[in-house]
Fold each of these.
Amino acid sequence: MKNILEAKFMVEAIRTFSNLYRLGWDERNGGNLTYLLTDDDVRDYLDTTKVIREIPFDFDGSALIGKMFLVTGTGEYFKNIQYEPEKDLGIIRIGATGRVAELLWGFRGGNKFTSELPSHLMSHISRLSVDPLHRVVIHSHPTYTVAMSLTHALTEREFTRSLWKVQTESIVVFPEGISVLPWMVCGNNEIGAATAKKLTTTRICVWTAHGIYGTGRTLDEAFGLIETVEKAAQLFMLTEGHDRINEISDRQLKELAASFGLNYRKDYLD
Ligand code: 13P
Ligand code: ZN
């Protein structure tokens, strides 16, 4: 077997954790990530017949039986993952009952998957139902996005419009808009189900006074979505209290959408 730390998915994931930390979006143990792995990803690196231990969870993941995920450990610091990935990360496979994770690699020292596993796995189920190529869920705490969730109306139409109007790239990168959840207790099945429901229509969901869920077919896509929302939120918050006399108008957004051939939320523009 080759060294799994040199596998493409692992190298990319570890770079992603370091970037998320460097950007200040994953303080302490904030944030978590799950990455759906294919047999091709792991074939040369992992003996999938060897289960290190089984870790139960308390929700129905039967839609994902047999699927493997790279997953962050609960309580681990993104800033440290690059130095001890085999302690801070795990590769799990959803077992035959749909309620147990078979640990195939990692979590050396006895840790287990993120407390947000329900939200992640339910989100994967949702996204796979609308996009068979979907693979990545990133939860992060980007500063300006969270700040905006504290001061902005939480209606998805208004939230999306505010992000679209301060940055030309916004409607191009997330033409379907973004979802927003009101504040909820995190780490349980309830927020998982609510997030997953939102993610059937958008790839992004903001958690008020907490953070964001970004999804995608690749790490870059999920990361790039979060990055683009966060940049727009930063522009929005930096211009709060000022007259945005040059913000992008609905007419201009429509021109942009026509020029880029976007399938955008028409009802979000007048
Ligand atoms: P975990 O350390 O369990 O992944 O939790 C971090 C977090 O961001 C909770 O929302
Ligand atoms: Zn969080």
Amino acid sequence: MSDTTATGDEATLAPEALTEAHAAAELARLAGLLARADAAYHGDDAPEMSDAEYDAFKQRNAAIEARFPALKRADSPSDKVGTTPAEAFGKITHAVRMLSLANAFDAGDVADFDQSIRSYLNLGPDAPLAYTAEPKIDGLSLSLRYEGGALVHAATRGDGATGENVTANARTIAEIPTRLDAAPEVLEVRGEVYMAHDDFAALNARQADMGGKTFANPRNAAAGSLRQLDAGITKSRPLRFFAYAWGELSAPLAETQKGALDRLAGFGFSTNPLTRICETVEDMLAHYREIEAQRATLGYDIDGVVYKINDLALQHRLGYRSATPRWAIAHKFPAELAWTRLEGIDIQVGRTGALSPVARLQPVTVGGVVVSNATLHNEDYIAGRGASGEAIRGGKDIRAGDWVQVYRAGDVIPKVADVDLSQRPADAVPYSLPNTCPECGSPAIREEGDAVRRCTGGLICPAQAVEKLKHFVSRGAMDIEGLGAKQVEAFYHDDQLPVKEPADIFTLQRRDSQNLSKLANRDGWGATSANNLFQAIEEKRKIPMARLLFGLGIRHVGEVAAQDLARHYGGWAAMTAALDSARPAALAHRAADEAADAERRRAAEEGRRARVAEARRRTLETAETPVAASEAWDDLIGADGIGPVLALSLSDAFANAHERAAIDRLIAELIEITPPERRAGDSPVAGKTVVFSGSLEKMTRAEAKARAEALGAKVAGSVSAKTDLLVAGPGAGSKADKAAALGVETLDEDGWLALIGAA
Ligand code: IVH
């Protein structure tokens, strides 16, 4: 017979040792405890427990429920929506964005990197050009701000623009000085927080002894330790820091990258001792091999080598692309590999309806991380064919039941590298993608020229609708605090508080509804978190145009294109009017593309190629597109960064009656769509449309374009009535004639440099 009374011992007994009565009492205690912790976490109160304690209590609750399923409570903590620690930290906006690095995977990529820099700077192949080469530390980046020599705050990278305030935690790291002598008044030091192998092993052993959470690898351990709500816990974790870069500075540190690192070392920071100066690509590759050879004995994880232009003046000239510097690159070590069984192939339906096959794998450890699925891209990839029909993996196809080799490189989704045909089960059959969407049953069609099969269900497909919503609330789009992927998915399936399309997020929040109290009573929510969410939604009724446009999730319209479009049109109404006006021309171009494709097929058969362009031209001519439509279309595809594929996709989205109605419902909920910021409002070229033509002598075309854009100008490829300025070098030819005919102001290169203050 088991006990029928709880004794108070239940809190200390292992789940296996609990009687039924003990278990019921313990589940009640855990439910109360975790609910209070949630409330403290979401509200402004001081948090009651660390992430690790919270997780341990949740696990204990789940273990007891697994033993006594009948005792599971209606308010069970297991059913609550998880909390995002990020919400618990304050945010810090970086004074200078924290960017990431472009990657090189082989010697050819490194040579291309050097070549692209030389061509950007107009340097010959033998002109001297020095790089630093140093290990790429596999940790997490941190920005430390010092004012008057005192550490004032520390922030994680976050989305690059804003990070989490982890100042109290950073102060506990011995390798981070809290005071600097003789440093510039403002100095932001950037580098990597990491955990050494020995310390990682010892920490995991300690955690296991305490029955706490162990970490999969040192990087996760470092991240989990830095992002503790209780700085006392961070202090007990052996974190280290390498300085390798900087953000805002009130005075330059040095003239070279290496000189700046030496200054940082002089302030007391650790800088990596394997940093070298390399004068040639061969030197860079030699140092890469040297670092790779030492990798296993360094005592901490690295995942590649970073090369940076040594001369800081050249770094400044090279500047940045949207998310990465032109002056640096990460040369990654080859991916780690492991063999395992492919148990099955699942299909995920994405926001644009793409059916993505995913390999379900028998879990296997690859480079310290357990991998249980891998991307299979598309049906050609599964069949052993690359993008242009060439054989990949020696032409071997992938089947359920196969013994496959998977690899992982950095944070990317694992992939299948190889198949062992000798281990293929006799009954394995070739895989074919379904012809209907597994989520909504609509036909799934693969159009000619597209590698991907797509569900044609549009918004009636729940998978597409949910993925669109997730994209809409994602970081680069609406970024609504408290409303992440998990929450929108829950709302999508919630009959009482349904969110089926973006506009519903705002109608959900409307003040005159009962929704606030309904939400506050939901599991995982309370009055404070519901209120916070509604407040966060209200704040997003004013939204930058580029974020809104990106958030719509239109195929081909990524963050950069959305910025380009916003800058090009300067406002939402101007853009939609232009798209509506351009529609007939967009249709004519689609018809012309189709005619050209048909002709291309015929010509390939008959060996006559000249007819393709002719078919395109004839179709366009017979389309009788209104002049205004052609102008609007030409203006759209003349915009910098916008090509015909993107333009057609955008036009289709706004011309589709269902999609347009959903967009308009969303717009009606918004208060203000803010036009793009001019990047440098005081420049005389800010907001102007500039065309470069002919050859430039003092800088390359790429540099000229990047500089103009940095000053807030739009750079277009062709002269039209909208052009404000033509910068014409020798040989400008027909563009110069057209500019003259249209009365467009024309400058030579020196005139341009004087205008932008660079002469
Ligand atoms: S330089 C403008 N140097 O790699 C970017 N980054 O993949 C300046 N990282 O976000 C970064 N070791 O977190 C730089 N020696 C090193 C690095 C390094 C690791 C990280 C950093 C960055 C990421 C990019």
Amino acid sequence: MLLCCGSRTLDLTEPLVMGVLNVTPDSFFDGGRYDQVESAVQHGLAMAEAGAAFIDVGGESTRPGAQPVSDEDELRRVIPVIEELAARISVPISIDTSKPRVMQKAVAAGATLINDIYALRAPGALETAAALPAAICLMHMQGEPRTMQAAPQYLDVVSEVRCFLEQRIGACSKAGIAPDRLLLDPGIGFGKRPEHNLALLARVADLKVHGRPVLIGVSRKSMFQALLSRSVDQRLAGGLAVATASVLAGASVIRTHDVSETLDAIKIARVLMSAGFHL
Ligand code: 8Y4
């Protein structure tokens, strides 16, 4: 399975890790200040060093209840970090945004993957992404971040997510985006209750619509509060268990805050598969 990522083609035959680099004020960042740019860049470099295959730079919090930010604020946070990382490492940089102007400037600054939780549904996003030399992660979300966890509802969550991904692949195709640029994502925690998240994780193989690779992001998410009663800094083991299970079930990319630990878990999943493990 190949992913066209700007001028590069990535081989997704072996599962890869995407490291999360938040440059949002609710983590530690308010943008632009040299020391903050430098500490974000250092964190990105450390994740690349640890073996991340992508560094996902995000300037808008997508946690439930988070406040939206302006184009200008988001650009001020992400662009200096992307420019500096792109100058210093060859690891593909991903831009976590739904805003067309941020997509454009981030790709100009060196990003080669657009990670959009709205799956290019914002006005102008589809056309903008089509014209840029970058791969795209299409994620499913029911509702919007501010309210999505109020009352998630599905008749059949797996069919509905599959159907959504199918529709977005179709919209991409109509806009001139080749399928080899697409990565798919069920959006764990985005308008989903724990039982919806579990149903999707149990069916990762069914989410590979048109054979495209699937990304799974569970790192530190609130499903571990519900399942294990663990606070954010106590969710590593739960995340590794889900990463391992997802890879065994056919996931191609794991998005995580914990790169080296997740790579170890993936390595175990892979050697188990080589030893004959199958679901
Ligand atoms: C603590 C820390 C509690 C982080 C919650 C969180 C995904 C994603 C996010 C995902 C893709 C998050 C931007 C949510 N999750 N993009 N983004 N897939 N493609 N919450 O699952 O990490 S942010």
Amino acid sequence: MNDPKNPPSPASGYRGRFAPSPTGPLHAGSLVAALGSWLDAKKNGGKWLLRIEDVDGPRSIPGADLEIMRQLLACGLQWDEEVTWQSECQEDYQSALEALNQHKCLYPCTCSRQTIANALATQGIENPRNQEMVYPETCRPIELGINNLSTRKMAWRLALPSNLVIEFEDRWLGTQKQQLNQAVGDFVLRRSDGLFAYQLAVVVDDAAQGITHIVRGEDLLSNTARQIYLQTVLAYDRPQYLHLPLVLDEHGEKLSKQTLATQIHTQDTKSVLQELQKAAAHLGLRNLPNRESVSIAEWLLAATHAWGNQSNQKI
Ligand code: GLU
Ligand code: ZN
């Protein structure tokens, strides 16, 4: 992996990416994120990178990475540089953690989920089901210092300054604002089982790969302020963000591998074009060529021209 402080800079400037977690094959929702990020990169003459986000090893499904790559290629969505795997970048995450430690903004935490829920309950805060709990700072020391990171079986949290409001312009959704202390609190960067958290890994990788534009699903919107704050502390450049509308199932739930969303059909050109057409319609792209008469490459070219001209967005 490249050095996050010294990322590559292509002539076009634009470097985008698609960063699926290999927890299953692509479904209609993840295809929207893949297509949206690919179209935005191509429209801007940029590069489109593929990163397999297998930082959470136990949740990864063996072979899902290769299946995703096969599906992307079947859809004509070819990446421009070598694919990277987060599982091969552990040293980069450790270095970033050490840099944060040198800035005296880390502390160890031994709380279980239950301890946190109990501490919140004594403050009269009930934990809404399946919601991320705002950490009540039980383990936060009064004075922050440089720690010995080698200690095992404890989580490492980022100590937020008080009243931390992060604001950014989303290219689709407009101005976004999050009060980090109230919305998430001191969040975990390395878990007690030794795994690095998604928030840290994604920020280190985006910087190391010189990503300038992040286009992804709206389900990740609430993570963006945390990621921007980490970029600030680590002195990385801040990419531009665009969060795409989510594909919902008939119950209004986000399609996900957990809800067993069906994988996209890529067995022949007709099926691929149908899937692409559905994803494009979801992105507000209209008047694309009739799917019977075009090749996948021709269809993608037309979609690239149409991208950015949708009436329902601010790209
Ligand atoms: N790996 C994340 C996911 O599949 C996406 C991360 C990102 O695009 O920032 O949900
Ligand atoms: Zn704790």
